[in-house]
Amino acid sequence: MARFENESNQDYAKVVGELERWSEAFRPASEARMPPPGNPLPEPYESKRRVVVPFPQDKNFVPQDDIMKRIDESFQGQERLAIVGLGGIGKSQIALEYCHRSDKYKTVFWIYASNAERIDQVYKDMSIWLEIPGRETPDSNVFKSEHGRILITTRDGQIGTDLSQRQPCLTIPRLTLSQARLMLHTKLPGRQTDPTEQVDELLEDLDYLPLAIAQAAAYMMDNNTSIVEYHKELRQNDVELSEKMEYELRDPRRDSDQSGSVFRTWSLSFNKINITEPRAADMLSLMAVLDRQSIPRDLLKKPSETNNKVTVALGTLQAYSLIQENVGGGDKTFSMHRLVSLSTQRWLETTPKGKLRWYSEALAVLSETVPSGEYENRRRWGELLPHTQIALGYLSDARGETDELGGALILTNTAWYELRMGRYESAHRKGRQALSIRQRILGSTHEDTLFTKSLLALTFGYQNLIGDAIKLNEEVLEARTATLGEDNVDTLKSLNNLAWLYSKQAKWSEVRRMRLRVLEARRRTLGPDHRQTIMAVSNLADAQLHTGELEEALEHSRAAYQSAVDCADLGQGHPDTLETLDVLGSILRKAELWPKAEEKGREALRYHVTTESEKHPATLLCKASLVLVLRNTGKEEEANAIYRTVLGDYLERDRSVAEGNVTGLEDLIERLTVMKD
After folding, report:
1. CA-to-CA distance for 659 and 257, rounded, in angstroms?
2. CA distance 253 to 130
3. In the predicted model, is pLDDT for residue 143 greater than 60?
4. What proportions of the chain, in percent to the nearest 5, are helix, strand and coil?
C-alpha cells in the first residue's frame, strides 16, 4: 500500500502524471530488506505480519473507528482513496493508524508528494530497496506493478478527487468534544484534564483541531503553564492567540519542509490558493477582515462577476475546509473559525499589499452595499450590521479620501438604522463621526453633508437635546431652501423635522403652521395618496389635538390611518402606519372615547411588539398609554400589571433614573414621550 501526502505542490499536473504512472502500487518482496547504504528510506517498523514505513503506531491515537470503517468500505472496488481536510485536522495520523490496523497490506510506503521529482526519486529508491527485477534497465518502467492500494491525504478536495480517479473523497471532520478531551488528556500526562467548563471552553476556542490541541499542550508542558492560565492568555486578545498558534510543534510524521504550527501550516494552503485560484484567495482575505460569522454570499461577489466564478472560488475555500456554508435561512452565508480568520490576517501581513488593502476593500464593498435605514431594509441590516461595525474600525487606517468617504456613508446609514431601532447613543456617535468627515472633505453645503447633519439633528431630538437639534436643523433647512427650493422633497422633510422639534418645546401654534405648509406642498407636488402626504395629514392632526381642534384632529387622524393601511408603500404594521395609529389613539383618549381607544391601543401594541421590540421606546409608550385607557375602563388589575412591567423596562433602559423619581403614570408617559418622540 502506498500512502501519498499531497500538501503544497505547485506543479500539480506533474504530480498527477506521476501518480497515473503509478496506477498500482508495488508487488512487495517476500521479505522486507534494509535499503542500500545512502538510501534515504528509514528503518522500517515491524507491525504484526507486515512492515510499516517509517513510523510506529501512535499509542495515544484518539479512537475514530467510524473513519477507519469508512476508509475500509471506500477501498472496496477501488484502488485509490483521497482523504481531505483542513491542515492540522489529523489526516496523517488517521492514515497511519489505518495502515497499522489493517491486515490486508504487508508493506506500507509513506511518500511526500510535494512535487513530481520527489515522487520519481522515492519510487526509484524503493524499487532498489525491494529489488524489483529490471529496475536498472534504462528503458524499463519501474512504476508498473500489479497489487496494492493508494491512500492520498490532501487539504484540497478538488485535487483529491482528481488523484483518486474522480472517486468521492472522504472528508475528515473535526474531533468531537469527547475526542478532544481525550486527546488533551493524553497530551498532558499527570495534569487534571477531566471535563470542566474551562477545559471545554479551551477546546472550543481551539476549534477541536488536533494540531491546535497538540500545540497548546506542548506549549503548556514546555512553559509549565496550567490550562486555566493558558486559556486566560488565549482569550486576552488576538495578539496572544496569534503568538500561541505560531508555537512550533515538531511531528516526525509531517514533511520536514512543513511547519508544526497551526498558522504556518495553514499559510501553505493560503499560498497555494493564491497561486492556483487568486479569486478564492481574494475572497478569503476579504472574509478575514469582516465579521467571521454569517458573511452573505452577495457581499463577496463583484458587480461584473458571474455567479459561476463566485461558486468556483467559494468551492475552493470549502474544499480546503477554510470556510463553511451555514445551513438554514434564506440567502447563502458563510463563516470561518476564529483561528482561520486570525491565521489569514497573519498571512496577509506577509503579502506585498498587506492587510491595509483589505481594510480599504471592506470599506469599499460595504459602502456600496449598505442600504438606507428605512424599515423596509431591516432584514438586510440584520445581515450587514455586524460587518459594518467591524469595518468601521478600519477608518483609523484609512488610506485616503475614498476610504474616508466610504466610511462616512457606512456611518451615516448605520446611524440611520440604529436611530430607527431606538439605539440613540450609538447613532449619535456615528452621526458625529460621519458629519466630521463629510464637512472636512465635501464642505458644509454638500447634500451628503446636509443629509448627515439632518440625521444627527433627529438623533439629538430623540435624546432631548433640543437646542442643538434645532440649530442643526435650521442650518439644513436654510441651505436646502437656497439650493433646492421651498417645495423640494428634502426641503419639506427639513421643515417637517423642525416642526417636530418645536413640538418638543410645546410651540403648538408654530408647529401647526409648519405642518399645514408641509401638507399643502406635498399634496401639490406628490399627490394625496403618497406616503409622505399621508404622514403629513397625521402630523397635522397631532398639532390640532394640541391646539384644541379636537373634531378636526379626529377626522384627519382617522383618514390618515386608513390611508396608511391602504397605501402600497406602507400597509398594516409598518412603523409609519403605527405612527398614525398612535396619533389616533392619543386623540381618542383626549376625546375620552375609551372603548375605541382600548381597541386601537391593543391593536397598536401588537404591531409595535412585532415590528420593533418589547422594550423599544415606542412600544413602552404604547403600553403606558394602554394602562391609562384600562384604568378608565375598569380593568385596574391588568393596568397595574402592565404598568409595573413598563416602569421596570424604562428604568432598565435609563439606569440614571431612580425608581422613586418617577411620580406616577402621567410622569412615566411624559418621560417615554420624550424618549420616543
Report:
1. 68
2. 22
3. no
4. 60, 5, 35
